[in-house]
Amino acid sequence: MYAFDVTRPKTVDEAVAALSQEDAQALGGGQTLIPTLKQRLASPSALVSLTGIEDMKGVCQDGDTLVIGGGTTHGTVASEGGAYPALAALASNIGDPAVRNRGTIGGSLANNDPSACYPSAALASNATIVTNSREIAADDYFQGLFTTALDEGEIITSVRFPIPQAANYQKFVQPASRFALVGVFVSKHADGVRVAVTGASEDGVFRWSDAEDALSGNFSPDAVDGLTASADGLMTDLHGDAEYRAHLIKVLTKRAVAACQ
Amino acid sequence: MTKATITVNGKPVTAEIEGRTLLVDFLREKAHKTGTHVGCDTSQCGACVVHVNGVAVKSCTMFAAEADGAEVTTIEGMAGADGSLSAIQAAFQEHHGLQCGFCTPGMIMSASALLKENPKPTEAEIRHYLEGNICRCTGYHNIVKAIMAASGQDVTSIAAE
C-alpha cells in the first residue's frame, strides 16, 4: 500500500469536513477498499474511516419502512433486519462471517460492484439512499459499473427500504469469491412487482422490466415462462458467458417468485 | 506516525503505527503475538481471524488505527493462564482437526465465534460458517467433527469416510 493517514471522525459533519481534503477517501468496513489499496489500485492521501460514527449504525423500523444506518454491518442487518426477512437473508449470505462483521451497507452501495448483493435489494425495493446532503431514489442512484449518483465526498448516512408485501433474493453463488454469479431480487409492492438483477450486466444492477410487467399481472413463477432475458450487454468471463447468465436470470426469477408463495 | 493502544488478550499494547499498518501486523510485530497468521493477505483464507471487541474479523483487512482502544483476542488468548487448552483447542487435538496447523489459529477463532452465537450448530451450519476459512490439508472433515465435539454433541454419526 502507498502511505496515507487514517482519521476516525465521530460525527457525519466531521467526516464531511475531513473528506474535503484533496485525495481524501471514505473508508467503510474496508472489505473491498483495503484489498484494492494493497494492489495499489487506489492512492488516497487520507482515509476517513466512518466506523466511529455511532449515528450511522443500526436498524430501525419506521412504519412501513426499514431504515438502516449507512455504517451498519451486514452481520447486524442479518440479525436485526427481521422486519424485512428477504433483506436480512440477503445480508446473512454476503461473503463470510468475518467479512459480514466489518462490511457495511453504505460501503457496498457506494462501491456499486456489478456483482454485489445489496444493489439488487435497493433497486428492487425502490429504496431511498439518504446522504449527508440529500435523498436519492434507487432508480436514479445506480449509474453503471462502480458508478453512482454520489458526489465527491458525499456519505451515505442511511438507506430507507419500503417493506414489501413479499420478497425474495436468489443468489447463484460464485463459490470462490462468494459474490453473485447472478443474483435476482424480486419484490412485490402494492403498486406492482420489481425485479432487480445483479452479477449479470456489464453496466451493473438493472431492472428486468418484462418480468416486472408479467409478474405485476400474475405473481406466479409461470408468468415468466414465456419470457427470455436478453444476453445483450451481459458479462462473459471464465465463470459463465452472457447466454448462461441470461438463462440464470430467468431461472432465479422463477425461484424467487416461487419462494414468495 | 501515530500512537495506538490495543488491548491484546487483556494486556494493553501501545505502539507507533502508520495509517496503513494492518491489525495483523500490529499483532505480530508490535504485540509479538505471531500465532495469528497471514495466509493470503487478500481476506480469502481466514488464517488471520481474531476477535475485535468480541466479534470475528480478518485482521489482514482492518487497519490497526481502527482498533485503537479496542479489545482484541488472538489464538494466544484462547488457552488458560496455566497453558491448558480450551475446549475447542482440545477437541481439535482429539479429533485430528489439523495437519500442518497453518490455518488452525483462524479456524479456532472462527469456531469460537460460531459457538458463542450458536452453541449447538448442525454440521451444515458449521460448514457454512467456515466458508471464510480455508484449509488445504484436512478436507475439513475433522475440523467440523472437532467443532461438533467441542459443542458437546455426539460425533459418531460423522465418522471419517
Automatic annotation (TrEMBL), chain A:
Residue stretches spanning the membrane: none
Gene3D superfamilies to which the protein is assigned, alphabetical: 3.30.465.10, CO dehydrogenase flavoprotein, C-terminal domain (3.30.390.50), Uridine Diphospho-n-acetylenolpyruvylglucosamine Reductase, domain 2 (3.30.43.10)
Entries under Pfam families matching the protein: FAD_binding_5
PROSITE patterns in UniProt: FAD_PCMH
FAD-binding PCMH-type domain sequence ranges: 1-166
Keyword line: FAD, Flavoprotein, Oxidoreductase
Protein name: Xanthine dehydrogenase family protein subunit M
Origin species: Marivivens donghaensis
UniProtKB/TrEMBL annotation, chain B:
Cited PROSITE patterns: 2FE2S_FER_2
The keyword Cytoplasm appears for this protein: no
Pfam families xref list: Fer2, Fer2_2
InterPro entries in alphabetical order: 2Fe-2S-bd (IPR002888), 2Fe-2S-bd_dom_sf (IPR036884), 2Fe-2S_ferredoxin-like_sf (IPR036010), 2Fe-2S_ferredoxin-type (IPR001041), Beta-grasp_dom_sf (IPR012675), Diverse_Oxidoreductases (IPR051452)
2Fe-2S ferredoxin-type domain: residues covered: 2-78
Keywords for this protein: 2Fe-2S, Iron, Iron-sulfur, Metal-binding, Oxidoreductase
PANTHER family: OXIDOREDUCTASE WITH IRON-SULFUR SUBUNIT
Protein name: (2Fe-2S)-binding protein
Species the sequence originates in: Marivivens donghaensis
Lineage: Bacteria, Pseudomonadati, Pseudomonadota, Alphaproteobacteria, Rhodobacterales
